[in-house]
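W.,

You were right to be curious about this one. When I first looked at the sequence I had no strong expectations either way, so I just let the prediction run and decided to look at it fresh. Below is the sequence, 210 residues in total, followed by the output.
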Amino acid sequence: MDVISLIVGFVVGIIAVSIAIELSWKKEEVVETCKIAKRWSISEISNPMIVAEKLKMNVPGNAKVVVKVETAFSKGAKVNPDAYGNFILGSNKALIFSGEIREGQLALRTVDGRILRKLRELFNEFWEGKEEEAAPEKSHRKGTVTVRGLAKAVVPYRENYLIRLSYDKGLIGVLIDEKMELEGRKIEVEGEMVGDERPFIKAYHIEILE
């Protein structure tokens, strides 16, 4: 009888432990690192770093912003035509948007460390740029410069358009009045250097070389 009681007690103990483990698993909550956010606020992210193809909302004064195309809300932002994606990044959280950054836009809120690291790498790449801009040499004509190079992109810039021109000394912006299909073409630009903080060439004449 003692042996039978011992066996029964052992079996009951195993069952009890199994039930306890199962209950503890059920009580353990799965940690969500990503969640769809229909409602969000930029104020939930301190010292935001923003990448936007088109920025359509006001941002805090301490935000660092890179945009692909300038808008009325991107004053003071860095313009990088190579930038892509739309996200607001903080130290431990990010909002990734399904389209342009504006109020009411659907977003993905994430605290996933791997995603945050990748977004930080992208932001730094777009913020720093791959090439340093350098001023071209002055032309023989007084007050003008002449430079030859490859037109990498033509993008809207305020009321005009800007050519991203790659040449032997780096990268320079060329301001033109109307959009021209110049991407991938080698051109020669003659114009005037304008701007202080971010100088570029206001083109007088553009010749397509090839």
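Here's what jumped out at me. The chain has two helices and twelve strands. And, maybe more interesting for your project: Residues 131-135 have pLDDT under 50 and may be disordered.

Coffee later to discuss?

I.
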